[in-house]
Amino acid sequence: MVARRVVAWHRKEQVVKWPVLSLVLLCAGIAHAGTVPMPKDWWKAPGSLASDDVRWRAEYLAQKEDANAFAADLQASQKSGKGMSYLDQGGVSPSWYQAPLQVQPFPGSYSTKLYDLAYSAFLQSHELQQAYRLAYTAVRLRPEDRQWRQRLIQVGTWLGQREEVLRQWHWLATHGDADAQGKAVSLALTLSRPDLVVQMLSVRARSGQLSNADWKSLIFAYGELGEPDKALEDVDAALKRSGPNRFLLAQKAYLSYQLGDIERSLRALESSTKLYGPDPERAIEEARLLSMQGKYRLAFAAMERALPKATLEDVPFWQLYAALAWELHNHSAAFHAEKTLYLLGAASQYDLQRLVSLSGEKQPEAALVVALHGWHRYHLPLFYFEALYYSATAHEWDVLGGLLRSVPANDHDGVRNYPAYWMALGQWANARGEYPLAGRAYAHVLQLQPDDMVAAGNLLWMLIDSGQVRTLRALLVNNAEQPEPVLRDAVLSALERLNLNRQALALATALPAAAPTERVAHLLNKASLWDGAGYPGLAWTLRRQGAWQSLQDLRVQARERAGHD
């Protein structure tokens, strides 16, 4: 008898009408709302890549929590107006905002001794508004006196007079106080005064005197003013004056992209890679720009160059690398990246879908574990049906039964509306020897999808195994002479099971020539059919041919092994 093969149930061939055995579908063998037992520990669960990755995963999750907390704080700040141009907005002012004090300067001329004594007295008596008024008056009378400006900054800070404090820090910064500049820039950004930031930093930027932090502040300020082109001009001037700089090349790439100049952005990234070597972060940016132009092979090549430097912390790198590898049908690279993301616990829904597809053919146990993880995490029918299929393919019948039992009575996901559910039920019942239930399940598949040749084949094999001769004979009416190619093995075995040897022999003779690897099995099958038809001599001759062919095959294999050695 021809050996059966397990095939995917979603494949379709030409339409063949099969009589439905029963329209009454009784699933007595399947209880509801059960648990799904996990298969043997073939693959590690997410988050267990290696023993030393526990610390990394904890840090990764902590970073995600910090990012979520920052996003929530930013949203609250936007609602309150903190960090924005709050003087121009309606609604509630931030809690730290204090309205500017209306100050009337003290009358009379300035006296150093009197003013110093009065300032000390006001501070000791906690009359801060009077101390603020005194310092304000002194600055107006003696604008070059840095000490009084520092005093006005001190008292103004205590009273929440940030605009006045900014004015004093800005004056000190523009008059040579290096420490004042950093504080003025920080406060100007807080109070949404990008014009002051640009005024203080732009000249120094062009001469290449800014730190990376100051460059970030300057570029942000230009962005607030809607002038990224001017920021790019400052970056180009600094590069021209001071030579290549890794940080500035990255900023040039970013600003060029903001201006829509992808080619210029790519040139900056390529220059950085050429000078300083590839790294995952730059590779991601370069690959994304190339992908925008449809240059997927170049994008993947950029990722490949940085691959040796990619670590477990580079989750975005693995995500883009996997997507590009999948796009280019580089399945080995895609499998490596998707498996890494899965074991890190960082795989998305689409990563899991790709990993199931990539591992299913050669590693159905792995595909089953991933599909179960996707089902438990996302509760999408796609993963449920993949888990059904691979549990049957891997012969994990306990897992398959658990999945079938997990469907609640109300079936709110509607999985029983799909033929795949009933196909899985038929396979599970057939494996347990519950042939009536298997027959009803396969019949329901054919009722929902009459052209499903896989279900028809499974039904035939089940009837052959269970010895249901009468039903098998009824199914073969009008289907035995010219069966669909996918059903020929099953029909041939069914005819032999019914002792219809002449019909089986006619069908076997009409079959196309067997492939070299199947030639011996084809001869032995024919010999069995001729023997059953009453021609033992011819059967013996065919068996001798099969033995001779087997000997020739063994000699060819021996020569090939000798050649390799």
From TrEMBL:
InterPro entries: TPR-like_helical_dom_sf, TPR_rpt
Keywords: TPR repeat
Organism: Igneacidithiobacillus copahuensis
Keyword presence, ATP-binding: no
Gene3D superfamilies, per the entry: Tetratricopeptide repeat domain (1.25.40.10)
Protein name (database record): Tetratricopeptide repeat protein
Methyltransferase is among the record's keywords: no
UniProt TPR repeat ranges: 419-452
